[in-house]
Amino acid sequence: MNRYILFFIFLTGSVGGITAQQAKIDSSYANWYYQQRMAYFEKLPTIQRAVIFLGNSITERAEWQELLADYRYPVLNRGIGGDNSFGILARIDDVVRNKPRAVFLMDGINDQFRKLPHEVSIQNYRRIVRKIKMKSPRTKIYIQSALPINEMITTEDYTRGRNELVPELNKKLSQLAKEEDVVFIDLCPLFQDDEGRLSKEYTVDGVHLIPTAYIKWVKLLKDKKYL
């Protein structure tokens, strides 16, 4: 699906008044890969009270079931490579249909690659969180920070100038978590270097994590008693 929709984003000024900004937003998400993953999810067995990792390719590439093979509850991977906040919002009803025990949500970087205004991403996050609360009120919700990227390694033009957008997005995600009374997990200290970039130790392409990085990720979740 390739479609563009027009948003009127209202931003409250720090001094007074409300200013309206008009932005053309790329809200597309349902490409062939998204559709194939959704078809795959639909054919999987129904599992109640699972722990779900939800997000884009950074989530999808993790072997969560193996990383948490000794965990006492089922663990499901609901990552879709290339997904963004619009795509996750569109499929959240399916994600929580079977009343998961917990949802670990991570998104954001693909929104940044499109240069979506943070207000749009946060609005989508808020709607995702509220849909989970409405459809599955006993589900524990964890918002995980967007990870930095390393523009010294990335090769695609759409990654240029994007890493500087990540800290502000994460500040707004942290504030959203407080407002919605859910848990915010800051993963950035695990994987960033002194310059705030995704450390070369943990990436090959400047965007995605190497497999062993996920061991560190899961250790943090266990240490914090989120798992």
UniProtKB/TrEMBL annotation:
GO terms for MF: phosphatidylcholine lysophospholipase activity
Chain ranges of the SGNH hydrolase-type esterase domain: 53-212
Annotated protein name in UniProt: GDSL family lipase
